[in-house]
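Expect chain and fold; see below:
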Amino acid sequence: VPGVRIVGSDDLGLAVDNWRKMWIENGLDDLRPDFDEFTRAFIARADSFKLLVALVDDHPVGSICCHLVSPTTGTIWAVYVNPEFRRRGIASMMVAEVKNYFYGTLGAERVDLIYASEEGCRVYKRAGWKEDDLLCLESSGMRAIDQAYVPAIPASFQPSESVQDLRAALSEAKGMSTAKLQCLLKTVPQQLSALAQFKEELAPLVPVIEGIQQKHKLIDKTWFENNLSRMGTGFDVRELSTPEQMSHKFDRLATKWDDFIAGCRYDAVFSWLCETVRDSRLVQRSSDGSSGMCVVDLCCGVGLPGQTIRLMDYEGHLIGLDISPGMLAGAAARLCYDELQVADVAAAASGLPLFPDGGADVVVCTGAMELMPQAWPQVLRACRRALRRDTGELWVSFQTKAEHGPTLHQGIEGVARDEIEGELSAVGLRVLSVLECPSAFVTPREGRLLDIPYVFYRLGLL
């Protein structure tokens, strides 16, 4: 293109401004209030980040950002050209320059291009980009967040009567924080049993904890059985096609979720989590002075996975993300997370992360992948991007396909193991351990209990 030069630049202000303009032009008028800080923080963490600027008469008329998401895969994003200079091939020039940078300078084997509008997708396809190399960046990660929870115990916090009773009943409680006691009291039976198997010092405390739970009616162990005949028909993933519908459904389920879990035999899930924490030496790494340890609990629900990890004595930073504010309120009540945020993980997975690129030592996601039948491969890629290079791990579960399809009536088919493991390899994840469980828990249907088959993976980076 005559008169156009493509040059490298360190003008992050220009990059952020153009990134903002792109979203506004695509109709997003409720950008998150920390948009600039969020974008700059992401850039600071991005591996091999590069900003290129298109100049006409030494004035910038467009920009493009890129970085590595793995040693062999690059991502192009924030492609923006000023309106008066569009349809002159400037965007194509910038993209070509970035591809030369990835393939020539960095030795990348694959380059993905992120688009934010259907028009952008059509343009890139006409330019020769294949469907598999184009990722749609949904707007949910950029929008202002209506609700977020950052649970902490304020100076004025008054322990509940149940916490006071537990402190009085346990001589061991003298050295425990109020948050630790609350966390113990918010366990469900199978979770507490699994923790006691892996932490011998907890075993003698179990009867005392269960007694106080019963006294204060913190868990209703009979609720599941009493409501068995009417459960199993009110949940259908096919009817929850929008994030709002999914969020609202789980908001309604949140207040009884602990009682539901207490009845559906979740033993295998909690045992796997405890065993994986032990085998990964996560606790030792978080307590030996390692700085910046971070665990992300993806689709955390009421917080049972993060709570289990915390009660295994993990001392690092713990972040929980979920689509349901109601579920997050339950997680906040456990007093074990450092941050909790409302997030549509399925939608945001294909774009900028809701958690730091390369900043997580562990991402844990259990009980969720089968609820995202179209999005789970992209969620895996987002998890892969989030992991700390060389040492990061993903702990993830999938409901597997079964002959009689115990949850087909709920629109949940499960995923075949060969499909899962093919995607894991393509994403750049290797299997450190795998556990196949024909009955990870049970689900009710017309008064019967059906076994739900699961496979649990502990994954590292290739």
Remarks:
- The longest strand covers residues 429-445.
- Residues 138-156 have pLDDT under 50 and may be disordered.
- The chain has 18 helices and 14 strands.
- Residues 242 and 385 are 25 Å apart (CA to CA).
